[in-house]
Amino acid sequence: MWRLALAAEAPHGSARAPRPVVARIRVESDGVAPVDRSVTVRPNAPWQSLELDLSQFAGRASRLELRASRPEGMDPEEPHDVRLAVASPRLERTAPLRPAAAPRVRHVVMVVLRGARIDRFLPTISPRFTGGLAMMAREGVVAEAIAGSFNAWAATQTATTGLSADRHGVREHTDLLSEEAPTPATVFAEHGIASVAYSDDAVWIGSGADRGYNRREGCPEAQPLCRVAPMFQAVADSMTPRRGPSFTLVVTRAGTIPLDPPNDLVLALDPVPYEGTLTPAQTGVLAARTRYGELRLDARDRARLDLLYDAALLQVDRGLGVVIERLQNLRLDDSTLLLVVGDRGTALAAGRHLGDGPMSRREVASTVLLARGPGLPRGATLRGVTGTLDAVATALDAFGVAPPSEFEGVSLYDSDRLAERALPFVANARADLGLRFGAWIALPRPPPTQGMSLYSAAGDPLGVDDVGDAHPIARGFAEGVISLVRGDASRRSFARSTRVLTAPAR
Prior knowledge:
4-stranded antiparallel β-sheet, 20 strands
């Protein structure tokens, strides 16, 4: 069963009554009669739900097409700028699931790469990466993972603990994970699996997410930040044929702002002298400025920013290559699962944001989940609703450890469940200060008034005219997000960004 919601939006101030838009759906596959469905959607009306039975296409490669078109009989010359919106499309299976059992492994190495952008891994791996990241993409599974929270630190905690943001409750760097909350290390300890954690950010050590590890390694001499390369070397050196079952976690801030890659890696990507003024230290300054205004960089500095980001990730690419080479030399490759998961993405001046940014942007809301090990396909892109908390679930499954009830991740070995799950997602209180949706700013109305107001960011900077009634799609999406912030019962929900299709002229 395919389910989705449809709505339409007409421009404000039109002299004539807006015409409806027709949503035309076609599903086709070789050897099966196609399914065609047309639905008339009236502008500015409430969202309407649609169900489409696709059981006849089960197990077949199929093409699903959704188009917006004019209603029958409408004059082709008549202006028609009504837009069709599609929200929450999902496939649901009614047949019982038969997940395949994950093969047992002796070792799991999991890397949390904070700030990992999905566009560096999908649709193909960036050509700038030729080491461990490239090997994992080529020899394992690649999936697009949704970040667990608007809040960057909460997203990091979700990726490292496998707990959804409303369960771990950590939002600021000063918050500590509850002593009662399980961590991967505490669960593994109950099953006799040793664990060690490495981090190049001293803030993560002592955050509570590191509880239960037999050993925790931070930066030398109590430095707050350091390079990640020595940690990968330590991981490689710890691998021996006689070592018992182990879980190794590496948490690196390589993809976050400020970017600070080693100079030799910058030169490896671009040996030509850079004549601009953008330095690694300035990336942090520019990111702070974007909190108060839009960031404008010329093409040369945009390219430099991209290069600094890739050079920072190149540290992880080479470090993983060292680990994989050691595993192969010791013949532990077939009994070790390697995982790389981001916490959330990083904005690189697109949309005038740097570092942080709105979750309506894919480069911020999405990150990557890579898995390479026994029982996983080679060079496959995994489809389905995948989250950053699924990395821990996959590690537990690989060891044959049943997860406690607090863990809501789904193992990549159980890919059937990924296609039809509901993914926990939690907003944070910062959104109460205002959310940007395209050209509008959404603000919650103060109590006791309910709902929210929508203002034009460019034409009405003082927020005088509420245009929410004229833009029901943006208003509905904003109300849904703000309801998460206010702690409504529906806060533990996930909805992909609304996609808007414009009806073409015939």
